[in-house]
Amino acid sequence: MWMKNAWYVAAFSKEVHANLLARTFLGIRVVLYRRDDGQVAALEDSCAHRRLPLSFGHVENDRLVCGYHGMAFGADGKCTAIPGQERIPPAARVRAFPIQERHDLIWIWLGDPALAGQSSPPDVGRMKHPDWVPSAGYCRLEADYRLLNDNLLDLSHVAFVHGRTIGNTAVAQSPIKVGQEGNVVSVHRDVVGAHAPPFYAHLGGFRQPIHRWHTVNYHAPSTCIIEVGCEAMQPGDGLGRIEGVVMHLITPETEGTSHYFWAFIRRFRQDEPALTEYIRQAIDATHTEDKVVVELQHAALTAPQRENPVNLAIVVDSGPLRGRRLLEELIQQEQSAPAPEPVPAHQAG
Fold first, then answer.
1. pTM for the predicted model, two decimal places
2. Is residue 347 one of the residues assigned to a domain?
3. How far apart are CA 226 and CA 215, in angstroms?
4. How far apart are CA 50 and CA 118, in angstroms?
5. The domain spanning residue 104 has which CATH number?
């Protein structure tokens, strides 16, 4: 259950170069490559002839050449050459997907191409801002993307899942404020008077109790941008104040698997490459802990026989429930809208 008319992250920019990159998004197999002019092209990873994945082929003169019979397809999906045949049937084409590349991320639109220009990807401009330094990574989840949305909209879990890195019990004990503006759900929490957990103690050098906060901004369907920060409550403690942004960019692969792109961006201690690597490793370990949780949860929820099919709602679920309602409303609106013009069926030529 997902939105098609939305921008999803397909890859980091550095992943797409002369070689072909094959991935599945929303159940659609896609192959990405970079043209000679530097632009990224994205085609359905299935030849119009015998359906061999085009990622089995190669790029030649900006065209994707099938590795089975040598049919060549341009970045617009149209076949431009068939070995041994002059006439190219109109149906000799594959789907081409709109792409936007910005701030070291490649975004793909898998819905109606005519609607792609009516919206923009979420603003992640701090990924490339000179005052901010990113640590980034990727992992694949054997879980429904909505479970990760839920996970990020309820950060009380950091007290129990991430106690060795970013969490402590004070987080779960602190109240939350939930709000919504348009298609963005926000969850804010202040944690006052508790010691910094290991990760933030290392970043800011805090030794005394601090004021810590985080604000989750969920941009439907599957982007969470979390503003985080810590401030010393005693003069001279550590750096005094640190701020960061954690970007969680989730793209459904199938109904039961997901792509998870992330970045932690900071504007303190910017000239320390060792700290950048420390953050990458620490956040990667944290997300590995989340991966275990949501994959176990997905397996339990999709088991053929469940002893207790009821999901109990508690106070901290107000953010995830608001996010779920928003997502369901947007999907319902999309499904009730007039369908786009169908692509002509394949014709033999």
1. 0.93
2. no
3. 5
4. 35
5. 2.102.10.10
90 and 201 part of one domain: no
Instruction: Please report, for the domain that includes residue 277, its CATH number.
Output: 3.90.380.10
The pLDDT tens digits for 235-274 are: 999 999 999 999 999 999 999 999 999 999 999 999 999 9
The Cα 263–Cα 244 span in angstroms is 10
Q: Which amino acid is at 112?
A: D
d(CA 88, CA 79): 7
Q: Is residue 308 part of a domain?
A: no
Q: Which domain holds residue 183?
A: 125-303+313-332
Q: What is the pLDDT of residues 51-72, one digit of tens each?
A: 999 999 999 999 999 999 999 9
Q: Which residues contact 104 (CB under 8 A, 6 or more apart)?
A: 12, 13, 14, 127, 128, 134, 136
Q: What's the CA angle centered on 229, arms 208 and 222, to 5 degrees?
A: 140
Domain boundary among 118, 149, 177: 118
- Is residue 106 a part of any domain in this protein? yes
SS (H, E, C) the chain: CCCCCCEEEEEEHHHCCCCCEEEEECCEEEEEEECCCCCEEEEECCCCCCCCCHHHCEEECCEEECCCCCCEECCCCEEEEECCECCCCCCCECCECCEEEECCEEEEECCCHHHHHHCCCCCCHHHCCCCCEEEEEEEEECCCHHHHHHHHHCHHHHHHHCCCCCCCHHHHHCCEEEEEECCEEEEEEEEEEECCCHHHHHHHCCCCCEEEEEEEEEECCCEEEEEEEEEECCCCCCCCEEEEEEEEEEEEEECCEEEEEEEEEECCCCCCHHHHHHHHHHHHHHHHHHHHHHHHHHHHHCCCCCCCCCCCCCHHHHHHHHHHHHHHHHHHHHHHCCCCCCCCCCCCC
- Same-domain check for residues 140 and 114: no
346 CB contacts (<8 Å, ≥6 apart)?
Answer: 48, 91
Task: Kindly state whether residues 100 and 138 are assigned to the same domain.
Answer: no
Same domain? For 113 and 253 the reply is no
> Are 168 and 211 in a shared domain?
yes
61 and 154 share one domain: no
